[in-house]
Amino acid sequence: MSSSAPGRVREVTSFANPLIKDIKGLALKKNRDEARVFLAEGLKLVIEALDQGWTVKTLVLAKTALGNPLAEKTAARVIAAGGDVLEVPEKLMAAITRRDNPQLVAAVISQRLSSLSSFRPSGNDVYVALDRVRDPGNLGTIIRTADAVGAKGVILVGDTTDPFSMETVRATMGSVFAMPLARAGEADLIGWMKAFPGLSAGTHLKGAVDYRKPDYAGKPVLLVMGNEQQGLTEALAGACKALVRIPQAGKADSLNLAVATAVMLYEIRRSALGLEDRP
Ligand code: SAM
To answer: Three-class SS of residue 261?
Structure first.
């Protein structure tokens, strides 16, 4: 619970209102980074953010949401925690979220990243490192899957796409608020990997080991996934204790990155999720 003074409720109807212009500007990474905030749409995501203790600076509420008990309760939570509420007509909400059928609410939320040094693997913790992942849909899907299997964190290496873009946040379906994320340069990650107390498994189309071979149970595992076009850099591949390959038949030259990550994560978590025993 925040101890700040309650926020304010304002009605805004003009596209030219500077508050609306600033919120629309969050579609650009430059503006998100400058203000260290991002936009999330939909009641489910905003409630998830509040439940996980993220700071909602502004809640944009479509007029059509007035009278909706959950939307109004959410607005009251935001105000009590010191955030502001903007009541807007539906056409303004559509412009902010760039959708014809906009959600009832959108929220400006403070960004939050962990430092790599705060990731301290132990037990059977699983971390995922993503080497220069470019596609926001892939990144969001991977964050969601990492959350689903109970991973402890996702490391965004080098030029990996922004986890706080609207497209990535949408694809996470709320897991962006649950999954700790850290950014790291390649050299920093390799340094961290040298001290990694368990198995670092890189995925590679030319990997020497079938992905089902290593024993992933009962130790920390770092799963390292490569760029959509180029795969892993040589340096990162060389820093992994094992390079594993998911077998393929057919003509496809590789699996989609998010699909390959899901296959790997469910194998790595096989024992932790009780997948050995048929339910
Ligand atoms: N052209 C790239 C290459 O030669 O590495 C393919 C990249 S693939 C689309 C993107 C990433 O997905 C790879 O770097 C790897 O992490 C993972 N991946 C996809 N299919 C895989 C497979 N069959 N075995 C292991 N990893 C795979």
So the answer is: helix
CA distance 253 to 274: 32
- Spacing, Cα 126 to ligand 1 middle (Å): 20
Judge contact between 24 and 50, C-beta under 8 A.
no
Is the CB–ligand 1 distance for residue 223 below 6 Å?
Answer: no
Tens digits of residue pLDDT in 29-77:
999 999 999 999 999 999 999 999 999 999 999 999 999 999 999 999 9
How far is residue 266's CA from residue 124's CA, in Å, rounded to a whole number? 14
- pTM confidence score: 0.95
d(CA 136, CA 133): 8
The pLDDT of residue 208 is 87
Confidence (pLDDT) at 157? 98
Tokens of 156: 């965004």
3-class state of residue 114 by DSSP: strand
Whole-Å CA distances, 260 to 65, 90, 228: 40, 39, 11
For 240-264, how does the pLDDT look when each residue is reduced to its tens digit (9 = 90+)?
A: 999 999 999 999 999 999 999 999 9
CA angle at residue 252 from 165 to 242, to 5 degrees?
Answer: 75
In short, whether 173's Cβ falls inside 6 Å of ligand 1 is no
Q: What are phi and psi of 101, to 5 degrees?
A: -110, 80
Which residue's CA lies nearest to atom 3 of ligand 1?
231
Can you tell me which atom of ligand 1 is nearest the CA of 247? 23
